Amino acid sequence: MELQKEVDELIKTLGGYWGPFEMLAALVEEVGELADVMLAVEGVKGSAKREELEEELGDVLFALSCIANYYGIDLEEALKKTVEKYRSRDLAD
């Protein structure tokens, strides 16, 4: 995935990857921020703009890309396998 390569180059420029559990903590933090913005966009808790939602989704993907890169996993391939899993499991009925 081309974007994974860009993330890899940036992380290496910034000094390298964090440890696995530090990266997991960063991902969880970003998902929490995404949840806050979604609540705001939906008017449940405050207000936010769609651009903020886009930014938080990008942050989650960045953190996820770091973990995938660390373990040598191609996110596009992983997603394709998951789509196929759901397609065969949920459309089989």
Q: What would you say this structure looks like, in words?
A:
This is NTP pyrophosphohydrolase MazG-like domain-containing protein. InterPro entries: MazG-like_dom, MazG-related_YpjD, YpjD/YvdC. There is one protein chain. This protein is mostly helical. It has a single domain, classed as Helix Hairpins, CATH 1.10.287.1080. The longest helix is centred in the first third of the chain and has 22 residues. The protein starts with a helix and ends with a helix. The model has no long low-confidence stretch (mean pLDDT 95).
The portion of residues assigned to helices is over 70%
- CA-atom Rg in angstroms: 16 Å
CATH-level-4 superfamily name: MazG-like
Number of helices: 4
SS-derived structural category: mainly alpha
CATH architecture heading: Orthogonal Bundle
Task: Describe the structure using short key phrases.
93 residues; mainly alpha; Helix Hairpins; flat; YpjD/YvdC; MazG-related_YpjD
Break the fold down into its secondary structure elements and pairings.
Layout: H1 2-13, H2 20-41, H3 50-71, H4 75-90
Q: What would a concise description of this structure say?
A:
The chain is mostly helical. 77% of the residues lie in helices and 0% in strands.
